[in-house]
Amino acid sequence: MIFLKLFWEFFKTGLFSIGGGMATIPFLQDISEKTGWFTSNQLADMIAVAESTPGPLGVNTATYVGYTVCGVPGAIIATLGLVTPSVIVIIAVAYFLDKFRQNRYVDAAFYGLRPASVGLIGAAGVSIVLLSFFRVSDLYDLAASFHLDVRHLLLAAVVLVCTRWVPKLKKLHPIWFIVFSAAVGIVFRFGE
């Protein structure tokens, strides 16, 4: 039964998270609240690791959650649940693309999805800021768990200055800043 629940939760996430990996974050928060498979702080850690490793954010987090819940079979089931809606939609779109390519209703529907995508990505951005800089432990009860984490703000400021205003560092590949931030997080125990 847990495999079916894993598949279903991530199937819904894959079906409705239009706009890329960041659009999955509100759905992941909902999964966290409903199932208790992971906490908000664990979600922030998952996002950090998923963003700094190869592969899409949604797939990486689905695989991780599935693995923590049911091991390798859970990882496979959760990942399949997330990607199945995309595969179905791509097959359907490819089949009907020529028929509906010039249809004004289809064009209007895709145009109408843009604000929803922007809203989901915006909500994800706000969630990441709250989880990272303000160490909010419960996104649904901000007043009870809100405190500023100066270490995270300082690290973000250092990376911003280095990537924008220090000419020699500005030319470095972004992966070096990710590695630097991860090392600082490990050394200074940012996750605790």
Can you describe this structure in just a few lines?
The chain is mostly helical and 192 residues long.
How is this fold's topology laid out?
Elements: H1 2-16, H2 25-35, H3 40-52, H4 57-100, H5 104-133, H6 142-145, H7 150-164, H8 167-170, H9 174-187
Helix pairs in contact: 1-4, 3-4
Distance between the termini: 33 Å
Detail the poorly predicted runs.
none
Helix content bin: over 70%
Category from helices, strands and their pairing = mainly alpha
Q: Assign an overall shape.
A: globular
SSE sequence, one letter per element: HHHHHHHHH
The overall average pLDDT, rounded, is 85
Rg for CA atoms:
19 Å
Total of helices: 9
Strand segment count: 0
Described by strand count, sense and barrel closure, the largest sheet is: none
Tell me the fraction of residues in β-strands, as a range: under 5%
Write up this protein.
- The protein is 78% helix and 0% strand.
- The chain is built from 9 helices and no strands.
- It is mostly helical and 192 residues long.
- The relative contact order is 0.12.
- The protein has helices at residues 2-16, 25-35, 40-52, 57-100, 104-133, 142-145, 150-164, 167-170, 174-187.
- It is globular, with a radius of gyration of 19 Å.
